[in-house]
Structure formats: C-alpha cells, structure tokens
Amino acid sequence: MDYIRDFFINFAHSWTTWISGGLPGWAVTVVNFLLGGLILVMMPVIATLALTWMERKVIGRIQNRLGPNRVGPWGIFQAIADAVKMLIKEDIIPDRADRPVFNLAPILIFVGAAMLWAVIPFGRRMIGQDLNIGALYVVAIGSITTVAVLMAGWASNNKFALIGAFRVVAQLLSYEIPMVLSIGVVVLVVGSMRMGTIVESQWVPFCLVLPVAFITYVLAAIAETGRAPFDLLEADSEIVAGYFVEYSGLKFGWFYIAEYGNLMAVSAITTTLFLGGWRGPFAGAAPVLGPLYFIIKTVLVIFVLMWIRGTLPRFRIDQMLAFAWKVLVPAALVNLLWVAAALKLPVPQAVQYAVMLVGNLAILGVTLTLLGQSAKQHAKRHGLAGA
Question: Residue 79's domain spans which residues?
Fold first, then answer.
C-alpha cells in the first residue's frame, strides 16, 4: 500500500469530516474546490521562485559566472527579493489601452499555466484528476497561452506589442502541430489518453522506443514556452519586450510566473509521456521512490532546457517557421504513420517496439542528413564554405 497516497487520502478525509461539522454539504464542496484551486495556483508561484534561482545558477556556470550569491546563502533568497521589488512597482496602464482585455490577459495566461497540473501524475494514483482525455486536455489548456498573449499585445495599443503578439500566432500555432503529432504517437501506442495509463504502460520509457517523437516534442515544447532559441515573441533587440512591453508591476509578474510555470509543467509532461513518469527501479516495492523518480526526471529535463537556452543563439523568424514546417512536421507525420503500421503487425509487443525504434532511427538519420545538406548548400550559396 502506498503510504504517501494513504497520507493524503486520510488527510483529505479528516479535513472534510472536520469542516462538515459546521457547514452544509454544498459549502463543503465549494471549500474543497477552492482549496484545490489554491494548491494549483501555488504550483507556478513556487516553481518561479525555485527555477529563477536555478536558471541563474545554471546559465552563470555556462557563461563562467557565479550567478546570484549575495542575498542569502548561495543567493537562494534573490528570487524572493525580486518578487518583493516587483510587488511594489507602480502599475501603469496606457491611456488608449483596452482596459478590460489588458487586465484579463495576465490572469488568463497564469490560469492556463496552473490548470496543466491537474492531470499530471506525481506517483501511482497520485493525480488531481485522471481524465480519460488527459492528453487532449493538455493540448487544449496549452492553447490558452496563445489567446492570452494575443489579447495582451492587442489590448496594449502598442505596435511593438502587436508585432510580438502576431509572432505568437505564427510561432505557437506552427509548433503546436508537431507537438500534437508527437503526443498522438504516444496515445496510439498506449491506446488511451489517460496520463496515468500512459505512465503505467511504459515498461520501457518511450524516449528509447520513439526518439523522433521525444525530440520533436521537446523542441516544440521549447517553442511553445517561448524560450531561447525560440524566444522571438519577446526579442528585445527587435521589438523591445514584445507582447508585454506595456505591463509593469504585478501584471508583469503574472507573465513571468506563467513562463516558469509552463517550463515546469512542460518538463513534467515530458517526463510523463516519454520518461516513464514515476516509474523506476523498486518503485513498486518502495512507493516513496515513485514521486522521487518523477521529481528527479522533471528537474533533469528542466536542466536540459536551461542548458539549451544558455548555449544556442536565437533563430530568425524565417528560420524558426521553416524549421517547424519543413523539418518537424514532416518527421512527426512520417513517424506517426510508421508507428501506426508497426502496431498492425501480428507480432509480440516487444517486436513491435523494435520495429518502431528502427523506423525512428531511420527517420532521424534521414532528417539529419537532409539538414546537413541544406546547411552546406546555404553556406556555398553565401560563400561561407570556408568559414
């Protein structure tokens, strides 16, 4: 028996019994829903405080710097100091801004980042709600970011913000297609959209069986979160701060929190879909290891994404869109068709997985070869062959 899960179940039962003594049944339901919502809201906030410090340290090491080291031991309170500074900044709204939409956009983007945590399994049966359309829920909630950013850019009545918002439409919608195709491959293999079922079906992590889907999803996820090298929606060298250039104070803080909340959520989803989630050695015999494995894998994915941000330069807008439509979409689509064909073979599952892996490696090899040839042609065309 998972005693961690039992602890939360017993705590929830005791809490419900305690508040039922003085409240009617409908009020108990409302209080429990509000408490669950508060927990979801706190997840991105806690993620922002921790990941801000972590990213500064990681990129500081990559760039041969120390990173934060003044406020608190190892600079661990620097993020709290930044949060206090942000809270006391003046909230300015442009005179000609669409005030209702301007005020709603940061709240909406924050809500989208928080709602993703409802379907992420932290351990065996440790999930907010294991929806039978959990994978579809992740895609749908992720689309809220596009709407919120477009609202922010349009309502600001600022040309730089509007250009940033239009870039969101081009970038996020383009990269959402290979992301959905990658998730579709996992759903096809498992035969279910339940996030819990997807984890339990990975006796072999899908990143080892479906490397094309894994790499495609990670690259698309970086673009969806608007992080380098896909951070053109807020390219300061071209459009200042992009879609939120007119936001300040706490409203700017909501966008900041949503960015790191999405980073952590995307890493957790990657862990769930491709890294086996909470599964690991002796996780069945020692249930406490399940959540520990999940946290370690998620932090490892976060570290890789931060490593990419601190290493690779920013793409141009034409390069970014061409990479989505000419590389990721065809590779993800061919991979989906190959996996569908492999699942129809009348052979054991292990053989099907082997066929999928061979096809994935072939697709990966062809894609890298074509990219290399394209790079050589580009260099020859521009006289960069000897550079």
Answer: 20-381
